[in-house]
Write a structure and sequence with these properties.
With 98 residues, this protein is an alpha+beta fold. It has 2 helices and 6 strands. The relative contact order is 0.31.
Length: 98
């Protein structure tokens, strides 16, 4: 399990997708634990932001040199989150889907 705090950001383009970028040390640890990945390098996880948990995947962001976690609208609504908010994140690797 990995825990960290990061800033929610809005992707600049159509769709209004919101993301959290994982700290580099967390991304490095995930690479070591998970190893080679399938499906465009996605990593299946159970993600928790504040009190809301859901199943999703992390995706590699080459520009950031890390992974990003998409924070869907239902989670943002449930937690009252907007872009630039600081969020507490907990991730657990979903080995059943990995």
């Amino acid at each position: 399990m990995w825990e960290f705090t990061s800033t929610l950001w809005l992707y600049p383009g159509d769709g209004g997708w919101h993301f959290v970028t994982l700290p580099p040390d967390v991304a490095d640890d995930i690479d070591q634990v998970v190893g080679e990945r399938r499906d465009f390098g996605s990593v299946p996880v159970h993600a928790t932001v504040w009190a809301t948990t859901w199943r999703t995947s992390l995706f590699r962001d080459a520009g950031a040199g890390s992974f990003v976690l998409r924070v869907k609208k239902a989670v943002r609504r449930a937690e009252g989150l907007e872009a630039d908010d600081s969020v507490a994140v907990r991730l657990r690797y979903d080995a059943d889907r990995g």
